[in-house]
Structure formats: C-alpha cells, structure tokens
Amino acid sequence: MNDLLTLIKDQDAAGTPPPADVEAQQPAPEEQAERESMDAFFKEVAAIKALMSDVRRSQTRLADAHQQTKMVTRSAEVHDLREKMQAEIASVSKSAEAIKKRLAELDRGNEAALKKGLMAPGSSAERTRTAMTGALKKKLKDLMGEFQDLRARVSAEYRETVERRVYTVTGQRATEAEVEELIDTGESETIYKKAMLETGKGYVLDTLAEIRERHDAVMELERSLMELHQIFLDMAVLVEAQGEMIDNIEAQVARSVDRVQAGTTHLQGAKQHQRSKRKWLLCAIIASILIIIIVVLVVVGVVRGFK
Question: Which GO terms describe its biological process (predicted)?
Fold first, then answer.
C-alpha cells in the first residue's frame, strides 16, 4: 500500500497529466460530420480559385504575346509568337474544363449536404456555401467577358496590321475589298503582283510570308478562343442559375430579419404592457391599504367617542 502511494506521489511530482476526459474532447458525430463537410468544401473552393488564377495569368501572357505580334515584321517571329499563344490557349482550355467540372461537383456537394442533413435549409452553413459558390461563378463570368474582349481586340487590330503592312510594301492604301481578301485568305494577287514589279520580288515575298503566317495565327487563335468561349457558355448556365438561387436566399434572409424584428417589437410591447400592468396592480394594492387604514382609524375614533 505504501509503495502504491509512493508511486502515485512520484507521478504527481513528475507532472503526469490526469486521464483525459474523452467524452468532453470528442464532438458529437453530427458536428464532426458537418465540420468535415465544410472543410472539404473550403478545400474545393481553394482549388478552384487556384485554377482561376492560372487562367488569369495565361490571359495576361496571351494579351502580351498579341501585343508583340503587332511589332514584329518577320514570318519566323510571327510563327514563334503564334505557337506561344496557342500554348497559352491550350493551358486556359485545360484549366477551364477543370473549373467547369469542379463547379459542378461543388453544386452536387451542396445538394448532398442538404439531403444528408449536414446543414439545415437557410442555415449559416448553407448561406456560406451558396454565397461562396456564387462568388466563384461571378468571377468566372468576369473572366468570360475579358476573353471576349480580347477576341474582339485581336480581330480589330489584325485588320489594322494588314493595312499597315500593305502600305509599307506598296506605298498605297489598300481598298476595302483588298483588305478583306487578305484577311480571308492571307494573300492578294493583285496587290503583290504590282508590288513585285515596283519594289522587287524578294522583299515582297518576305512580306507575303509574314502576312500569311499572321493570317494563320489569327485564324487559329480565333478558332481556339471560340472553343474556349463555348466552354464558358456551358458554365454560364450554372452562373445564371446560381444568381437566381442567391437572390432567393437573400430574399429568405430578408424575410427572416423582418420576422425577427417584428417579433422583437412585439416582445418589447408585451414587456411594456406587463410592466404597466404591474405598476397599476401595485398602485391598487397601496390604495387598498390606505383605505383600510383610514377605515380602521375612523372606527377607532367612533369607538372612543362612545366611551
């Protein structure tokens, strides 16, 4: 017995912690499941944000490469920039497909969490999920608009570049029909036959090769941007549906706030009425006591008068 007490004292002196309260440390199974569900949601949101950042960086590099194409004059340089732009478009398309897939999974996860009871309808968890999903889709919609702007800018500036290169070679402004022919086919027999006679075959052929390369680059970029735009259009349906859902939730929240405010006002009125009722009851009791005292004094006075 003494040895046992000595052992216990030694453990206390060594700072051995008491046995942990397992039940106090372990959350309820429902809370644990909800927490794990939200952790998985936030992890997925972070992954989608990272993909969107990749798309944004690729878009910036794509715009920079397009700016460079306006300054180069050799077909080899245009070709190198063309390959660089196509690589960026391929990267964006890959990221866009991944974003599309993950957003769909995010929506399915939100629905599953409701069905499994991991969050209640209208709860803070549901509002958080819906708001963050909607914010991601809004950001995606903004990216869609920026790529559309880039596509329009590439088309407009390509026309300007063609007109400028023709003027450089021939010294004359090309007609609208000649510019359209160059844009559609990458070459114009009328313009370059005349230029060859006036400035020399070698220089004209180099310029023609450059314009053909530029034409192929723009057509390829246009085709790739259209394919990318189709991916974005598929996701636009999700964006619009999410917008309606957010509007409905905001309306529900507003109605809940109104109900809470109305309930608070009613409760305050009830408390005021209760305080007023207590006040009148107290006054009535005091008045009754005073009346009793007066009656007693009158009776005592009458009795003394008879004596």
Answer: exocytosis; intracellular protein transport; vesicle docking; vesicle fusion
